[in-house]
Amino acid sequence: MSETLTEAPATGMEAANEEDAAAEALDSEDVSTPDPKAFKSLKGRINYDTLKALTVRPLRLVDMTPVQERVTALLPDLVRPWDPEGIVSPKVPNPLPPGWEPPIIDPNAPRDILVRAQTGTGKTIAFLIPAIQSRLNYIEHNAMLAVINAGQGPSPHLAGRARHAFRRACAGPLILSPTRELALQIANDALKLTTHQKEFEVRLFVGGATKRQQMREWMRFRRDLVVATPGRLRDLLENEPEVRNGFKDCPMLILDEADMLLDMGFRDDLDAIMSYLPPSPARQTFLFSATLSRQIRQSAASFLSPNHLFIDATPGAPSLSPDKQTPMALALPPDDELTTHSRVPQFHTLCPTASDPLPTLFKLIAHDQLTHGNRSKVIVFCPTTHMTALYATLMRRLGSEVLPNGQTNIWSIHSKLEQRERDAANHGFRKAASKKDDTPAVLVSSDVSARGVDYPGVTRVIQVGVPSSEASYVHRVGRVLRGSDAMAPGAANEGARPNMRADMLLLPWEAGYLTWQLTNMPLKPLPISVINTQLETLSVKSGSAFSTETLRDAISDLLPSLDPHAIRSTAASLLGYYLPLNSSLRAQPASILSGIYAWALENFNIPISMMQQSPKRNHQFELYDENEAHHDRVPW
Ligand SMILES: Nc1ncnc2c1ncn2[C@@H]1O[C@H](COP(=O)(O)OP(=O)(O)OP(=O)(O)O)[C@@H](O)[C@H]1O
Hints:
It contains 24 helices and 16 strands. The chain is α/β, with parallel strands linked by helices. It has 2 domains: 250 residues, P-loop containing nucleotide triphosphate hydrolases (Rossmann fold, 3-Layer(aba) Sandwich); 257 residues, Rossmann fold (3-Layer(aba) Sandwich), CATH 3.40.50.300. The strands form 3 sheets. The chain has a 7-stranded parallel sheet with strand order 3-4-2-5-6-1-7. Helix 14 packs parallel to helix 20, helix 15 packs across helix 21 and helix 22 packs antiparallel against helix 24. The protein is elongated, with a radius of gyration of 26 Å. Bound molecules: adenosine-5'-triphosphate (ATP).
């Protein structure tokens, strides 16, 4: 992958001059007594070009976030090449070529880390800085080894050849991400950080793109960093000897959203991938996550070396100097402790009947548009792919008619879309509603966008129904308040921002989830009557023509005209989603069934003629339609 998939911001003459000045300041700056928070304090500990990308162009960052500060405090020891025999070590001063300073390293410093930090706090940069530095160090290390092994004294020519061969033959750090969108975002962030290292290359292995193209690039170009989703990487490792060979000396594995990757759904792929990588300690492992359940902590231990560090950069965690960061077992609190964006106000609305969530959803979006105008940018999370497709259709058909700002850009992302459609939605929503005269935007999404994906300027997240886990709730809420807003100086200490928020719409049979699963979340009740009053006040204040009657009429005109098969498929998908959650909801399967039955009947006037529990398997229900068997495609 040699080009950025998101456009770099345009720079005019003024910006160019500013950049020159910043670069000069970076060159001349004395960092002998640096502010440890400032990126500039990394001068001398990371490659100059990486530092320039961070502080001058394209990122122009000033201060590190706590997680970045804690991780980079471990440099340079954290990224020293694995050299158990000490061949390239301070004990071997010769025959190092002139100007090659062997780094001063602590041979006992931990090499593996488990990092917990809240969503949106800059974990990507926190792992990319050491990953890039590790790759650069390994390239030099190998060049030194080649010279030493040749035994002919300093030879820049030989070193150059060794560098060239190594960069093409051996994969650098491997970063795994659970979703394609997040993988793409990480790869693009890596390209930004290596803007000034023109030859540095990032390979991206994700499903949805052609394998042939990925293989062609793998064979022809450098493999400095590899970003991948587990399924595609496993497939390539199992079927392509060239990929297998490339990874046999892979020095570093980074799991972003580690809790999800270590969970059962990905575990098989992960175990298969691990069998192609070198074992620890030759392979370093970094695990990054915003949430860590007890079970995940246990399985994390099997990936990490025994003297790994646990770095807890969540608020309230003890602040430790790097040499005192504690091993995981000592540092983690005994109970599951999930963190969330405490700065995001969170509300739940209990909808009395099955026909309430849809109009209430439109009202919440209307509320957001009346509050933020054209910069309103809302993500609606739905429980299943079918539901996501259905709600996206409803938004597209009704949005312009009923929402206060008229034109609203609606995007949708779920796993049954083609990759190019996912990419277009991802790209479109990322750029949307960023200027005053833009159009408000809504992204209707399944959990594909819940983690890591960084959409700047999201003003509100609305969850329709319950998430699959408490961790998923936290990640969804974490889509608000990201990017520059979240990182503004002092933001961590600021109080809640009343204009950005998260909402959740629940039916009575879903309400147990609040009590039993989201106990620690700062969710406040928000009745529909209060939403109505707030909307009225806002409409009058802004002179908007928004009307709840128009909304109600438009919905009741549209819903009965929808394809009944599609509604049945959505109802089936909801059953498949909710029944296994019955113990989390503390709801009997029968009340889930009748809740979903009511949803189909009251909204779409579709009686689901018969629902039966399969005699063979628990919680496997099937919908029967006299005329047609249930089909599983997304029909919208
Ligand atoms: N030091 C910093 N100063 C300002 N902005 C930053 C800084 N570090 C990162 N950012 C920006 O903050 C946003 C969120 O960063 P990132 O996506 O890495 O968060 P995250 O911790 O990985 O979140 P998640 O857990 O949701 O994946 C990005 O837009 C990133 O460019």
